[in-house]
Amino acid sequence: MENDIEIRRALAHLSKDLVAEILSVSTIQEIPKGTELLRDGQYVKVIPIVLNGLVKVFTRHEDKELLLYYIRPEESCIMSFGASLKNEPIRVFAITEEDTRALLLPVSSISKWVREFPDFNGLFYDQYNIRYAELLDTIHHVLFNKMDKRLYDYLVAKTTLTKKNPLKVSHREIANELGTAREVISRVMKKLETEGKIKQHSSSIEVFTSTSYDLN
To answer: How many angstroms separate the CA atoms of 213 and 192, rounded?
Structure first.
């Protein structure tokens, strides 16, 4: 009963007939933190809608990674949707950032729902708009912002998304997600700490948020 309520809340903007079909063929899965859901070059078999938890989507080139966006509760992965429609391998990686509960939509039903239920298309058009805006923000940060602003904004966003502060995250993990070297992150961390914006503990980073900070 609890699962049914949770799913209906996540799919509240869809028609009752479509929700009934989704409930009849989809499954709920509990996915531990750090589980790889999607891998570059993999064909998609199910499309996740996150009910609880958090999933990060990123790209990788050689030994460098770049965080593209997070999939939050009641959101899905537009990249897996696009790849499934074209029957093409996906071009990103996805890993659970936290223990996550997800509704898994079978790809075998997607084409039918696209044809028969216009509101299903709307679900992923909305996701496309969200991801497009986030990717533009990522490009803006990479091209125009100094690393101290990128790093601080990243840490603030992570505390908001995870609802955790201090954050248990390593310099290497941060470097991977921001597409830079660990040494760069360590150096900028010291700068932010000196400025009073963060405090580094033995295994975590405490982030202080304030509208008075000007990192431009």
So the answer is: 11
